[in-house]
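[step 3/7] inverse_fold.run input=structure_tokens len=256
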């Protein structure tokens, strides 16, 4: 594995931030790896600003009523405004307050990756992938390959791939129990959904794809698949508890 990696062009870096592995894989020979310092500094700033485990940051102070939204930084105001928009779009199934406490983490991870990709593009990268705990944003191609190939982990069998997506410009997000257990809940019942194992959503933006995947998973098997079928610019694959796989017409799975 190491020998193969050494033959690949570009630079690859992994850091544990926000409680998860973040991987940046740039496949451009002429890319200056020093630019990744700025990218990972961005992720650390996001963690410091939005982590619900840091008692003195703006998110925690907002949650306790110690800070007015108007006095928060621009990034915090934007994220919370987008959370409100997504709550409307998803009929309330994506809700930054679903747990009873302000927690925009369901949007922040994808949003931080989207902006990290902008930093990479500004630094001259063209062919790269950014992964945060498996959710990915792809740009260009996986040089020397013509496309990126992304395996979507099976929700029950850790070593099995449920599907493979091949793409060049795409965001891919999956929501389900997986290793974190029942962390996604139906905001209306207060309980984890039954009958659905995972939902994968693909589209142009990781933040939106991640929020849509969370919402569709929370909707459960009766409402989630019909809702994803009506999305514009985003496609979805839902795996039900009985093993049935439901995909929208444009979902780019090439094998399973």
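[step 3/7] decode complete -> sequence:
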């Amino acid at each position: 594995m190491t020998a193969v990696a050494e033959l690949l062009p570009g630079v690859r870096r992994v850091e544990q931030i926000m409680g998860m592995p973040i991987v940046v894989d740039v496949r451009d020979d002429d890319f200056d790896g020093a630019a990744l310092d700025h990218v990972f500094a961005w992720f650390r700033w996001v963690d410091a600003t939005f982590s619900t485990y840091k008692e003195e940051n703006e998110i925690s102070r907002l949650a306790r009523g110690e800070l007015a939204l108007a006095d928060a930084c621009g990034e915090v105001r934007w994220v919370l405004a987008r959370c409100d928009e997504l709550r409307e779009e998803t009929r309330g199934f994506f809700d930054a307050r679903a747990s009873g406490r302000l927690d925009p983490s369901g949007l922040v991870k994808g949003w931080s990756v989207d902006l990290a990709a902008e930093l990479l593009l500004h630094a001259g990268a063209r062919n790269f992938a950014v992964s945060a705990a498996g959710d990915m944003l792809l740009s260009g191609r996986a040089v020397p390959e013509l496309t990126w190939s992304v395996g979507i982990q099976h929700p029950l069998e850790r070593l099995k791939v449920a599907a493979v997506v091949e793409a060049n410009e795409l965001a891919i997000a999956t929501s389900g129990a997986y290793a974190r257990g029942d962390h996604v809940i139906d905001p209306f019942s207060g309980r984890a959904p039954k009958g659905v194992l995972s939902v994968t959503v693909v589209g142009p933006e990781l933040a939106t794809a991640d929020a849509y995947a969370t919402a569709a998973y929370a909707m459960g098997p009766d409402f989630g698949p019909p809702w994803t079928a009506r999305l514009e610019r985003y496609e979805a694959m839902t795996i039900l508890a009985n093993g049935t796989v439901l995909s929208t017409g444009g979902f780019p799975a090439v094998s399973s």
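[step 4/7] annotate
The longest strand covers residues 196-203.
Confidence is low (pLDDT under 50) at residues 1-5.
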